[in-house]
Automatic annotation (TrEMBL), chain B:
Heterodimer of an alpha and a beta subunit. Keywords: Electron transport, FAD, Flavoprotein, Transport. This is Electron transfer flavoprotein subunit alpha/FixB family protein. Belongs to the ETF alpha-subunit/FixB family. InterPro entries: DHS-like_NAD/FAD-binding_dom, ETF_a/b_N, ETF_a/FixB, ETF_alpha_N, ETF_asu_C, ETF_asu_C_CS, Rossmann-like_a/b/a_fold. The electron transfer flavoprotein serves as a specific electron acceptor for other dehydrogenases. It transfers the electrons to the main respiratory chain via ETF-ubiquinone oxidoreductase (ETF dehydrogenase). Pfam families: ETF, ETF_alpha. Its cofactor is FAD. It comes from Nocardioides abyssi. Residues 4-186 form the Electron transfer flavoprotein alpha/beta-subunit N-terminal domain. PANTHER family: ELECTRON TRANSFER FLAVOPROTEIN ALPHA, ELECTRON TRANSFER FLAVOPROTEIN SUBUNIT ALPHA, MITOCHONDRIAL.
């Protein structure tokens, strides 16, 4: 089985994230890392590798040079090889352009050995749009089994469980396909010392746009199909009233607050 | 005036409230036309309500060849409807399905997409909340038909009394779109409480409950609220994942959010920080959740909540 797992390099969500003057996400001034939600996709890819002999897992990332850190983390966890698509022209790309770059890179990665499974996290921790997996499926003309909370495979048959808003569903499809997984699939492994050492020797390629046959005029901020006109830091919430509960005073104060706000 | 398509979110004909909010927003952009996937009987019934709340037209798309498969057939049908109607925009409810149908439609129609809108203004300016609610972002779609997914509770529901004229639309679904099959479907059991993402009030519990959600549920019922849970409570197996509020659970934006025994990690904040009024009860006065609150009680939820519930029930008489 040939698996490509898409990993995103995102600003650390516990750091002070901000926007640049051109309203794009600051991806350089803030420490970045492999998006936590993509670790679950790497984990599921590795579990499939462990169950299916002869499986290769390739970590694929689109981002600035620093984004190689995200690929490296996936290699340390156990992916076999890594690809970073990096090109100045890509900066500021929206979902549509990002999905184009990913799709072309998946095609190139599968040129000799067809890709059976494209794995993604359920969302990125920065934009959290959750739309790139479906766009990738559309571009690659593949079925999608997305937001999986449980993954089962038998040969090329795939079944997932998905908790949608109103129902729990079981979705079935045949590879090749695009899958996205949630954190419910199970904790992602930490890289072991051995894994960290081994990762240094694993193949890691950097591709430019011309390597994947995408013209620079098709991507980037200036041709994005959406425009961000304004980003404003939310004013810090004015400090609320905090009371200490003493002998039941807390319940009374809480009730009075709710009454004053007309919730009761 | 151009049409604005509103994709109806419904379960077996029962329309979910966020759809009606979309109709209110759609009216700012043009003339709302609802798109109902289902049988013509159910579509006819739905059209009455949809008309009353703003839909001039209701396209009913027979879903015999659509309902058994994930996402792709709906995107195909909508692409055909977009082709026919050249709408000013298409609005979806921001959920798994709304986002993914919009995503495929974006590629099919060469259109830009904006997700998780909290407001849509005349002229198509869309407001989003970014970085766990720390930033407000405004933007526009600049290419194709604007595809906008909107979070629940982003607009009021308004009685308009529009026509709601039914028009059947026959879509052609390709075999390629029928490859991800819905093998089984278990509708969520009705809890008797409001649905989490739609609720005006949400009462949540976290690690501090120690696994006992009775005080949380008691307060929720007194306030007519939905019950939520933090990831810690879900990971401990105290509540099912469908109750989880946060980055990997539901994103809620109610009028009132009451966090009980929840410390307020960034992942949780990402799911509730846009709530209008925030209240917390926590034993630990250093808990970061208190940085967000309009009102907070430093105390044990196991004594504060039952006492507050009793007082509230008394006041309600």
């Amino acid at each position: 089985m040939n698996i490509v797992v898409c990993v995103k390099y995102v600003p650390d969500s516990t750091a002070d994230r901000q926007f640049e003057s051109d309203n794009t996400v600051d991806r350089v001034g803030v420490d970045g890392l492999l998006s936590e939600l993509d670790e679950y996709a790497v984990e599921q890819a590795l579990q499939l590798k462990e169950k299916n002999e002869g499986t290769t897992v390739t970590a694929l990332c689109v981002g600035p040079e620093k984004a190689v850190d995200a690929v490296r983390k996936a290699l340390q966890m156990g992916a076999d090889s890594g690809i970073l698509v990096s090109d100045e022209a890509i900066a500021g790309s929206d979902y549509v352009a990002t999905s184009l770059v990913l799709a072309k890179a998946v095609e190139k990665a599968g040129a000799e050995n067809k890709v059976d499974l494209v794995m993604c996290g359920m969302a990125s921790t920065d934009a959290s749009g959750s739309v790139v997996p479906a766009m990738l499926a559309e571009r690659l003309d593949l079925p999608q089994v997305t937001f999986a909370s449980v993954v089962e495979t038998q040969g090329d048959q795939v079944r997932i469980k998905r908790d949608s808003d109103t129902a729990t569903e079981v979705i079935g499809a045949t590879m090749p396909l695009v899958m996205s997984v949630t954190d419910q699939t199970g904790e992602a492994r930490y890289p072991s010392f051995k894994g960290i050492m081994a990762a240094k020797k694993k193949p890691l390629e950097t591709w430019s746009l011309s390597d994947i046959g995408v013209d620079a005029s098709e991507v980037g901020l200036s041709v994005a199909w959406t425009e961000v006109t304004e980003t404003t830091a939310r004013p810090p919430r004015t400090a609320g009233e905090i009371v200490k509960d003493e002998d039941g005073s807390g319940a009374t104060a809480l009730t009075e607050f709710l009454v004053s706000k007309k919730f009761i | 005036m151009s049409e604005v398509l509103v994709v109806v979110d419904h379960v077996d004909g029962a329309i979910r409230k966020p759809t009606f909010e979309l109709l209110t927003l759609a009216r700012r952009l043009g003339e709302p036309s609802a798109v109902f996937f289902g049988s013509s009987d159910k579509g006819g019934e739905a059209a009455q309500k949809l008309g009353q709340l703003g839909a001039e037209k209701v396209y009913v798309v027979d879903d015999t060849e659509i309902k058994g498969y994930l996402v792709a057939p709906k995107a195909e049908a909508l692409a055909q409807l977009v082709e026919k109607t050249s709408p000013a925009a298409v609005l979806f409810v921001s959920g798994y399905e709304g986002k993914e149908v919009a995503a495929r439609l974006a590629i099919k129609t060469g259109s830009g997409i904006i997700t998780d809108a909290v407001d849509v203004e005349e002229g198509g300016v869309v407001t989003q909340s970014a970085f766990a609610g720390n930033y407000t972002v405004k933007g526009k779609v600049t290419k194709g038909v604007p595809l906008i997914t909107v979070k629940p509770n982003s607009a009021p529901v308004e009685e308009v009394g529009a026509a709601g004229t039914v028009e059947e639309f026959a879509a052609t679904i390709s075999d390629a779109a029928k490859k991800a099959q819905i093998v089984a479907q278990q509708p969520r059991k009705a809890s008797g409480r409001p649905e989490l993402t739609e609720a005006a009030i949400v009462v949540s519990g976290g690690r501090g409950t120690g696994g006992n959600f009775e005080p949380v549920e008691g307060l929720a019922d007194a306030l007519g609220a939905a019950v939520g849970a933090s990831r810690a409570a879900v990971d401990s197996g105290w509540m099912p994942h469908t109750f989880q509020v946060g980055q990997t659970g539901k994103v809620v934006s109610p009028q009132l959010y009451v966090a009980n025994g929840i410390s307020g990690a960034i992942q949780h904040r990402a799911g509730m920080q846009t709530s209008k009024t925030i209240v917390a009860v926590n034993k630990d006065e250093e808990a970061p959740i208190f940085e967000l609150v309009d009102f907070g009680v430093v105390g044990d939820l196991h004594s504060v909540l039952p006492a507050a519930t009793e007082e509230i029930n008394k006041r309600k008489g």
